[in-house]
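Protein of interest.
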Amino acid sequence: MNYLLDIGIEQDVIKKALINNSKQTIDDAEWNIELVISNINYLKSIGIECIDKIIINRFDILLRNSNNLKETIDNLDDNNVIELINKDIKYIYYLDK
């Protein structure tokens, strides 16, 4: 997951992600590097600040189809959901809808 280092993710975050996420999720990420990077950049661009926590706890969010992820967020009250997610990662479940 060295590609995450290239976009500014710290090594300790990567180590925690490897522990907290399934081997299948990590393998899927390795096969979908461009998708993962694209989704990280998108989440940052809309104001999500807890990218490290998402990588550690819900890497699967970053493997979602980019259009699907954007559509899910567009269908929510963006500012409120983004604020909630930034305050507490548990609200990431809104992106599961």
Summary: The CA atoms of residues 57 and 69 lie 17 Å apart.
